[in-house]
Design brief:
103 residues; mainly alpha; 70% helix
């Protein structure tokens, strides 16, 4: 995957300039321009800042192209944390309840 191209694609799809991305992410504008002019790959820390603060996505979402990911909101994280601690019987009961709402 071309990381700089992915950043560009996300930035353009959100109608953001490099300047706006720099302001939102907290990464210096000159640093971002340097990545492009020298074809550098951002550090993982910088990429995480770009993703989370600039684009409002996780690193997983950044690298998952053409997949159907569920957005990682605080609510979905809480539900997953609760789910992990359930017994198999409790999970089956919850599944049945959720399926009943699907109708």
């Amino acid at each position: 995957m071309d990381i700089l191209q992915r950043i560009t694609d996300l930035r353009v799809s959100k109608g953001m300039s490099i300047y706006e991305l720099a302001n939102k992410s907290g990464i210096a504008k000159n640093t971002i321009y340097r990545w492009y002019s020298k074809n550098y790959t951002p550090t993982l820390d910088s990429l995480q800042e770009i993703c989370e603060k600039g684009f409002g996505i996780t690193l997983v979402e950044f690298f998952a192209v053409d997949t159907d990911l569920i957005p990682a909101t605080s609510e979905t994280k809480e539900i997953i944390d609760l789910w992990i601690n359930l017994t198999d019987t409790q999970k089956q009961a919850i599944k049945q309840i959720l399926l009943s709402y699907k109708k």
